[in-house]
Design brief:
By secondary structure, the protein is of the alpha+beta class. The chain has one domain: Alpha-D-Glucose-1,6-Bisphosphate, Chain A, domain 4 (2-Layer Sandwich), CATH 3.30.530. It has four helices and nine strands, in the order ββαβαββββββαα. Strands 1, 2, 3, 4, 5, 6, 7, 8 and 9 form a nine-stranded antiparallel beta sheet that branches. Helix 2 packs across helix 4.
Length: about 200
C-alpha cells in the first residue's frame, strides 16, 4: 500500500502524491481552520514561545531586478526545489489554499497552508511586496511563514526575506527534534537561493 497514513502529519507516501490526490485533499481542506491562533503575527516581531527562523538575501539591484523578483515570487519560484514540489501556480490572494509535497528520508509528505495576508506597497524611497501563509491541520508543523520582497530605492538593493514561527504539530516531528529543525532551515536556505537565482535571470 503506497499511502502510509492520513493524519495531522499529512499524507505519508513512498512516492510523490499525484495531482488527483492533491486536488482531492485541497477540496477537503478548502474550509479547514488554521492550526494555530496567532494569524498575522509575522507582520511584526515574531511571537515568543515558538521556534523562529528569519533570514534574507540580496537578489539584485534596481527596478529591473525588482520586477524579476516580483514575477518569481508570483510564480512561487522559491518552491522550485528538487525535494519540494509545489502544486500549481495559485494567485497570491487572501484565503487561497495551497499545497506542496516534500520529500525527506525517502518519504513524501503532503502539507497545506492558507494565505492570510498580502501586501504591495510602493513609497518614494522603498517598496514591499509579498504575503504570508499559515498552516492547516494536516501540516507537519503549526505556524506562519512570511515571504517578503523589499526594494531600498536609496541603495537600489532588492532583498528577499523569509521569516517564520513554528512548532511541531505531530509527535513524530517532536521526536525528530534537531532533524526536523534542520529540514525547516534547509527549506529556508534553499528557497532564498532559488528565488535569488530566478530574479537574476
Amino acid at each position: 500500500m503506497n499511502a502510509l497514513a492520513s493524519s495531522r502529519l499529512g499524507l505519508l507516501r513512498l512516492s510523490r502524491p499525484s495531482k488527483s490526490t492533491i486536488d482531492t485533499e485541497l477540496a477537503r481542506h478548502s474550509a479547514a481552520k488554521l492550526s494555530y491562533q496567532l494569524e498575522g503575527a509575522t507582520r511584526g516581531p515574531l511571537p515568543t514561545g515558538w521556534r523562529h527562523d528569519d533570514r534574507s538575501i540580496e537578489v539584485g539591484r534596481g527596478p529591473a531586478a525588482w520586477e524579476r523578483a516580483r514575477t518569481a515570487l508570483e510564480a512561487w519560484s522559491q518552491f522550485d526545489l528538487p525535494w519540494v514540489k509545489f502544486h500549481g501556480t495559485p494567485p497570491l490572494q487572501v484565503g487561497q489554499t495551497v499545497a506542496f509535497a516534500s520529500r525527506q528520508l525517502g518519504v513524501w509528505t503532503l502539507n497545506m497552508c492558507r494565505i492570510v495576508y498580502v501586501f504591495d506597497e510602493d513609497e518614494p524611497d522603498s517598496a514591499r511586496y509579498g504575503f504570508a501563509y499559515g498552516t492547516l491541520d494536516n501540516h507537519a508543523v503549526a505556524g506562519e511563514e512570511l515571504f517578503e520582497l523589499t526594494w531600498d530605492k536609496t541603495t537600489d538593493r532588492v532583498s528577499f526575506r523569509i521569516a517564520k514561527f513554528s512548532r511541531p504539530a505531530h509527535p513524530l516531528v517532536w521526536l525528530a527534534g534537531p532533524l526536523a529543525t534542520r529540514i525547516q532551515e534547509r527549506f529556508t536556505e534553499n528557497a532564498l537561493a532559488r528565488l535569488a537565482a530566478a530574479a537574476r535571470t
